Amino acid sequence: MNSRLLLPFLAAALVATPLLSASGLAQSSDRRAIGPDTIVVLPVSGEITKATHIFLRRALKTAERANAKAVILEMDTYGGDLAATSDIQKALLSVKVPTYTFINTNAGSAGALISIATKQIWMAPVSTIGAAAPVSGGGQDLENTMREKVTSYFSARARSIAEQQGHNPDIAEAFMNKEKEVKIGDEIINPKGTLLTLSANSAARWINGKPVLAQGIATSLADLAKQAGIDAPMITIEPTGFEKMAQIIASLAPLFLLGGLVCAYLEFKIPGATLPGVLAVVFFGLFFGGHYLAGLAGFEIIALFLLGVMLILVELVFFPGVILPAVIGAGLMLVAIVLAMADRYPNQPLLPSLDQLALPLINLGLALAFAALAITILMSMLPKTSMYRRFVLAAAVEGGSAGPLVAAGSVLSGLGLGLTGVTRTPLHPAGKAQFGDTIVDVVSEGGFVETGVEVRIEQIEGARVMVATKRAAAPDVRG
């Protein structure tokens, strides 16, 4: 086998091994330990960031697949990013496994909003929850109009989530909106003009047969499990260092797709070049590896993409010109790319919903659009470069024929309509043909043409040379 063909696979191994094996071993170990009679504990501490969401999403899906008895968020945070908080709320609402929050000291701001997205809230004896008013990234108050818009939207969202999870929606709104008065029965829990913050004793009070917010006070996770009636062995899943890397990779998904598509084009366009193929594999490896670490793509999606690649290679190597394997392969690759970006949970249907497909389709559309633009530019500029001509010359020499090269876009001197030549590379439908001592880029009018086939120039439009296979002359039949 040509050693050049092994380089992309070596690059794939170098990219995939550290990304997939480290996280894959951790996840498989988690799944082996977790079962229907176990409680999964997820620490939520420090600042809430996108990395927190990626960790919790991965861990929640692991617990869901293992059919865990319950998930407990052990909370100690003063808050963080509001967008990441919304994503975490969405993740908590997407799983069927019972969810609990144990506020072990603090559930400030974003922590309070995450807590109300779980089914039950329990608090340590000395702990607080609340004060979730939105502020700028630097911690400053928002401008009045913006503050009103953000507060209105997220207050309504908080109310909706609280109602869905069985919490008092007025409490949830008062965490964000200081103009919200909270009154339970005849008792005012929070006066208008103050952001609501509850101590453990205040949150765990029962009024008229219902808790203000928390189900009770627990001294530990084990005490919580015993009081809640879910006493079972506990397994803690910790965030990995790769999840921060996954955050960066997932956010750059369109760029990695763009790089992979353009480099794949260059690999097929430049005979003898190896670097574009290696880079294409690296870009696609980073794309799928990042989404795997982010809890979006599983091995089955990666396998689907590789199956698509194999079908394209089968068409190119064994059945050139058949087209059907390549079409099916390209389709599988596109499906795998979209599914890799879709946030689907184990209990949800195999086919993602339109909402789940919206962002993946936008990312794919952006990547395809910019890739088409980049390829169009490369098609006009690349043949003019000396590097490209050197690669083509090397391929021609390897194929047993070398001659002066005429770059597409330059004056095609000596060529004219009807001139015949021989293909020096397969035409897919683009490739190389030799006319006399000159090798040029050509495009076949009739699709695939093998190497060594006689062709005739049918049309020349600037740098575009259209050829057709030379047909035998019709017999001269006279009556």
Brief account:
The chain has 479 residues and is α/β, with parallel strands linked by helices. The chain contains 15 helices and 17 strands. Strands 1, 2, 3, 4, 5, 8, 11 and 12 form an 8-stranded mixed beta sheet that branches.
If you had to describe this structure to a student in words, what would you say it looks like?
This protein is α/β, with parallel strands linked by helices. The protein has 15 helices and 17 strands. The chain has helices at 3-33, 50-65, 82-94, 110-115, 144-165, 169-176, 200-203, 221-228, 242-251, 253-269, 275-293, 299-317, 324-341, 354-381, 386-398, and strands at residues 39-45, 70-77, 99-108, 120-123, 128-130, 182-184, 187-190, 197-199, 206-207, 210-211, 216-217, 234-236, 420-423, 430-435, 438-444, 454-461, 464-469. Helix 4 (110-115) links the parallel strand 3 and strand 4 (120-123). The relative contact order is 0.08. Mean pLDDT is 76; it is low at 1-29, 396-411 and 472-479.
